[in-house]
Design brief:
elongated
Length: 116
């Protein structure tokens, strides 16, 4: 198995976590030493690396190889599904915010009618 290690910036931008990517020619493995990653959960550090988000990478050497591995693995489809779902969620949250604003405006209008 071919392994590559990357330093991925934390959300504070000052510290970094190590993300290790392994490729055996068909299967991809990814591990991160952040709290979520240490528990085996998916984290933004893994996502950032596998999505090729260079802004979150403290080290970029070998990124091209990893992105090719991602494209050749089943992870690519799953990550695409995640991106679609996240976009749908953002759109739904925006619609919900607008709907709540309309409800508040309607409540104010009724209150103005009742208490002129």
């Amino acid at each position: 198995m071919t392994m590559k290690t990357f330093s991925v910036l934390s959300s504070d931008g000052a510290s970094a976590y190590s993300v290790v990517v392994g490729w055996n020619g068909k299967d991809l493995s990814v591990a991160c030493d952040c709290k979520a990653g240490s528990l085996g959960d998916w984290c933004r550090h893994k996502s950032g690396l596998l999505n090729g988000e260079e802004a979150v990478l403290a080290t970029k050497d070998g990124l091209t190889d990893v992105l090719q591995w991602v494209k050749a693995s089943p992870v690519n489809v799953a990550m695409s599904d995640i991106q679609i779902a996240e976009n749908d969620q953002r759109e739904a949250e925006a619609l919900l915010k607008k709907a709540k604003a309309k409800v508040q405006a309607a409540k104010r209008a009724v209150a103005d009618l009742v208490n002129p």
